[in-house]
């Protein structure tokens, strides 16, 4: 039986996590690749390999400094690719374990869509105005607008199966999620 695995993606600050929260509140199973990434940040093998790639200053107390790493690797395409091979390979491995145990549709929140290949049934893209995205990330992560723009310039997405626009209120976002569920035949009664 083919498992229904739906990618939930979009630019940084677009509202992917809010859409995932709405889906969870509606009873759907979700997986947050950022949560997996936090686990991977503690993996001694990954920490050692990233330290060799970037330098010891990107590791503190045996953990990766993901904020510092993000600023460095998103500014260098070649370095980003090497980092992705190490870090995102481990995330993919853990995601495959989770998917293999899924018995119902699974929504996977994935911020860096092109980090690894996966056989998604559908790709849901959460979009919002670029300036709004920058403001959200600055407020959330206490980073500069230039840092956010650097990340945005590197993020790429394939043609989505579905698009959820997130420039309005939470109520409007909930309505957009319900509409998208109906269109994908995943709506529960």
Short key terms for the protein model shown above:
189 residues, alpha/beta, five-stranded parallel sheet, 51% helix, single chain, two-stranded antiparallel ribbon, Rossmann fold
Mind explaining what this structure looks like?
Helix 3 runs antiparallel to helix 5. The mean pLDDT is 87. This protein has helices at 16-25, 33-40, 44-54, 66-73, 77-100, 130-141, 145-154, 170-183; strands at 5-10, 29-32, 59-60, 63-64, 106-109, 122-127, 162-165. The protein has 8 helices and 7 strands. The longest helix is centred in the middle third of the chain and has 24 residues, at 77-100. The strands form 2 sheets. It has a 5-stranded parallel beta sheet, sandwiched between helices. Strands 3-4 form a two-stranded antiparallel sheet.
CATH topology of the domain at 5-38 and 90-181: Rossmann fold
Secondary-structure element series: EHEHHEEHHEEHHEH
The major pleated sheet works out as: 5 strands, parallel
Alpha-carbon distance between the two ends: 23 Å
Overall number of strands? 7
User: Roughly how many Å is the radius of gyration?
Assistant: 17 Å
Under the CATH scheme, which architecture of the domain at 5-38 and 90-181 would be assigned? 3-Layer(aba) Sandwich
């Amino acid at each position: 039986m083919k498992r229904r695995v739906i990618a939930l993606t979009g630019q940084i600050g677009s509202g992917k996590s809010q859409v995932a929260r709405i889906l969870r509140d509606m009873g759907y199973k979700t997986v947050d690749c950022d949560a997996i990434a936090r686990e991977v940040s503690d993996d001694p093998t990954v920490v050692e390999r990233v330290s060799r790639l970037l330098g010891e200053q990107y590791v503190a107390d045996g953990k990766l400094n993901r904020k510092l790493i993000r600023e460095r690797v998103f500014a260098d395409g070649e370095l980003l690719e090497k980092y992705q091979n190490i870090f995102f390979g481990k995330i993919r491995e853990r995601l495959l374990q989770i998917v293999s145990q899924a018995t119902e549709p699974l929504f996977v929140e994935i911020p860096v869509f092109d980090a690894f290949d996966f056989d998604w049934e559908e790709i849901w893209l959460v979009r919002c105005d670029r300036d709004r995205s920058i403001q959200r990330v600055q407020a959330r992560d206490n980073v500069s607008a230039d840092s956010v723009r650097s990340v945005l310039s590197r993020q790429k997405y394939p043609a989505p199966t579905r698009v959820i626009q997130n420039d309005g209120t939470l109520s409007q976002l909930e309505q957009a999620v319900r509409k998208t569920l109906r269109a994908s035949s995943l709506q529960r009664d």
